[in-house]
Design a protein that fits this description.
Blueprint: E1 7-9, E2 12-13, H1 18-41, H2 54-60, H3 64-70, H4 75-90, E3 111-112, E4 115-116, H5 126-142, H6 147-158, E5 170-171, E6 176-177, E7 197-198, E8 204-205, H7 207-215, H8 258-273, H9 283-294, H10 297-315, H11 352-370, H12 379-390, E9 393-394, E10 402-409, E11 412-417, H13 427-435, H14 438-453, H15 471-481, H16 488-509, H17 514-520, H18 531-538, E12 554-558, E13 563-564, E14 570-578, E15 581-588, E16 595-601, E17 608-619, H19 626-631, E18 634-645, E19 647-652, E20 656-665
Parallel strand pairs: 1-19
Antiparallel strand pairs: 2-20, 3-4, 5-6, 7-8, 9-10, 10-11, 12-13, 12-16, 14-15, 15-20, 16-19, 17-18, 17-20
Helix pairs in contact: 1-16, 2-5, 3-4, 3-5, 4-5, 5-9, 6-9, 9-10, 9-11, 10-11, 11-13, 13-14, 16-18
Length: 685
């Protein structure tokens, strides 16, 4: 262990608080749930029993890596590696089939060079790839020296920065990603090249079905989940926003006339598949992942330049982010200058903003991190929050509850609803946590007060949302740090505990044989739920479910076990947070072993601690007589020590606790996946 770090020793002996005991129980029950899921629903080599789309396979096994990085058992890192490797190989188009390979009607190879191909095009977007990338990003938090993970990070980044000729997703001349759909096979720019999709009923859909699905989603049934296809086109002429204004109205059975079908397919290629869209800002997480492994400045430059390009488009489009950029980098190029109408943009139906804002949150967070905390990059997100607020309405004269537009189309702003209080991306809380500024705090409280005054849902309530997050789980955390929800730590951990316990009970009651599980192709939700552990121990929102990077205020490492996460018996709670201070309670719930941990400023050491203040307890009797010891007078004194670095150590003798008031100098270091004993960069093994 590095002995140069400032060392603090806890001196207060007291019963552990309820939140600390509950947190350790939560670690225990998550481990039990993960073990049951591994034993019952996966082969010993890591291949899972269910078959569907590859992002769903990754999702069902996600959170194991970050659970280990939080302090979960070491075996969860091994499980995560084994299952990621097995899923990736199983779905790779390069592999050779063997007699041992499972034969299931839903199976389709979906990866090229270990990343998404275009065989299921609607999954080759950032909503789905981001879901699958959770496991990938967590490896950097859990085991950054693994050479395979490091090389994958570089390989996947190469697909999007113009370094992989087999995946030319990046246009270096016009500084755009060439299509809304992309991956290891490059961009999708011609729908007729689509090979076909296998559905649950054994039928195979073609490229015409694919376009029908996008233009008239109700017409083919559960097409988007590869369910049984129906033939139920709309009765009225379509108003296809993807082809507007080139096609004002589209006849429902446009595909039955050969000439009309070919015309629409040509228009679809030009208007929908060519060029960039805001959801591609999620690419910044993939590139940031490579930077955190390597520290290579080219990755930082790409992220900052790409986000700045979208900020520039916002500024030239009256403050609104355009949702389509043509093949030569011009906004609305295929739509006569119309800034809306893209595939995953403002016009994709009710709550279109939920998909749109994923890219804005991730792009803002990654650029803010890599720029050293330059708040100007947050404008890619903040500006669009302002757009929604400026175009909000009051639901009625009595409640005066804020309703914001959630889509935009030919009739202007539409589909007014709440500010993602019932779900959707948590843009408000992630924006505020990034800056911790008074102005962003005012934005959140303004929305909150108008919502609550109008009789909206209580922001202190915590729903059961499984391994997914969403705004509802983070508004309650905001309330805690705003002094309005003192019971939040217990409530949020209780919510996750209740859900994990329910999953264990359901899995243990599942009496199906392995063959029945395979035949049913039905599996329980992911039981490794770590939202509350992240929020309470790290003082941050959970990473965005669709491919966000962890944005922790603090992290912990075990110097004796040489691993990330809290040591055994130790609980942590960030109980106060501001732009220049973080307060942490640390508790050794054990009664026999001294525990030592390293506290790090930031998820990736991007912050520094200036100093730490804490209380020291001394006793008037220091002998071995327990009666005299317990009756001894206790004296509390405040101690303070300088740190001026991104790490310090804390020693917790048995049954002790300490509250640390840590001064913060945010974004004062280059971020890296490196652990404290690695130095300032990840060593190459």
């Amino acid at each position: 262990m590095d002995t140069s770090y400032t060392k603090i020793t806890a001196t207060k002996i007291a019963p552990p608080p309820d939140w600390a005991l509950l947190q350790r129980r939560l670690f225990d029950i998550i481990a039990i749930a993960g073990d049951v899921a591994t034993e019952k629903y996966a082969r010993s080599d890591g291949r899972v029993y269910h078959f569907f789309d590859v992002d769903d396979a990754y999702e069902s096994r996600s959170m194991r890596g970050i659970f280990y990085a939080l302090g979960g058992p070491r075996r969860f890192l091994d499980i995560a590696k084994r299952e990621w490797d097995a899923i990736t190989w199983l779905y790779s188009e390069e592999r050779q089939l063997t007699d041992d390979d499972p034969n299931h009607p839903m199976y389709m190879p979906q990866l090229r060079n270990e990343y998404w191909n275009l065989d299921i095009p609607f999954n080759a977007d950032w909503f789905h790839m981001g879901e699958g990338n959770q496991m990938l990003y967590d490896f950097g938090l859990a085991d950054p020296t693994n050479p395979s993970n490091r090389e994958r990070a570089r390989k996947f980044a190469a697909m999007y920065i113009g370094e992989d000729p087999d995946a030319p997703n990046w246009d270096p001349v016009h500084k755009i990603i060439r299509s809304p759909l992309h991956g290891g096979a490059g961009p999708m720019t011609e729908v007729r090249k689509h090979k076909g999709i296998v559905h649950t009923d054994g039928n195979v859909s073609d490229h015409v079905h694919l376009v029908r699905h996008w233009l008239d989603r109700r017409s083919l049934g559960d097409f988007g989940h590869r369910g049984t296809m129906e033939d139920n086109p709309s009765a009225e002429p379509l108003l296809p926003h993807f082809l507007y204004p080139r096609v004002k109205e589209l006849e429902p059975r446009w595909y039955e006339d050969n000439a009309r079908r070919e015309e629409i397919l040509d228009i679809f290629d030009e208007m929908v598949l060519q060029g960039d869209e805001p959801s591609n800002l999620c690419t910044t997480a993939l590139i940031t992942n490579a930077y955190l492994y390597t520290g290579d400045e080219k990755y930082k430059k790409w992220v900052l330049d790409y986000v700045q390009g979208w900020i520039d488009r916002i500024e030239t489009n009256d403050g609104i982010i355009p949702d389509n950029v043509g093949s030569t980098g011009v906004v609305g190029e295929a739509r006569d200058g119309q800034w809306w109408g893209g595939l995953h943009g403002w016009s994709t139906g009710e709550r279109a903003i939920d998909r749109l804002f994923l890219g804005l949150i991730i792009g803002a967070e990654c650029a803010h991190l890599l720029s050293g905390g330059d708040d100007s990059y947050l404008e890619v997100l903040r500006s669009q929050v302002r757009v929604l607020m400026e175009n909000s309405i009051e639901t009625d004269n009595e409640s005066r509850c804020m309703a914001v537009p959630t889509s935009y189309g030919a009739e202007g702003w539409a589909s007014y609803g709440d500010f993602s209080i019932r779900g959707g991306p948590p843009h408000l809380t992630h924006l505020y946590h990034a800056s911790l500024s008074e102005s962003d705090h005012e934005i959140v409280t303004r929305v909150r007060d108008r919502w609550l005054n109008g009789g909206g849902d209580d922001w202190n309530d915590i729903p059961l949302t499984g391994d997914r997050g969403g705004a509802r789980t983070e508004f309650s955390q905001f309330q805690y740090y705003d002094g309005k929800n003192p019971d939040w730590p217990i409530q949020t951990m209780n919510a996750d505990y209740e859900q994990v316990a329910g999953y264990i009970e359901a899995m243990e009651r599942d009496s199906r044989t392995v063959q029945q599980i395979i035949d049913d192709n039905n599996w329980p939700p992911n039981p490794v739920i770590v939202k509350a552990l992240i929020q309470t121990t790290m003082g941050s929102p959970a990473p965005l479910y669709n491919g966000g990077i962890l944005r922790a205020t603090v992290r912990y490492f075990d110097p004796y076990e040489q691993r990330p996460g809290l040591p055994s018996d130790v609980s942590a709670l960030v109980d106060e947070l501001s732009a220049d201070k973080v307060c942490i309670q640390l508790v050794n719930t054990g009664h026999s072993e001294t525990r030592t941990l390293i506290v790090q400023a930031g998820a990736f050491g991007e912050h520094s601690f200036t100093d730490v203040s804490f209380d020291e307890t001394t006793y008037s009797y220091d002998g071995i007589n327990p009666g005299l010891r317990t009756r001894a007078e206790q004296t509390q004194s405040c101690a303070s020590t300088a740190v001026n670095g991104k790490h310090f150590t804390v020693e917790l003798p048995p049954m002790t606790s300490v509250r640390l008031e840590c001064g913060l100098d945010r974004f004062s270091n280059n971020p890296t996946y490196a652990f404290p004993w690695h130095g300032d960069e990840v060593p190459i093994e």
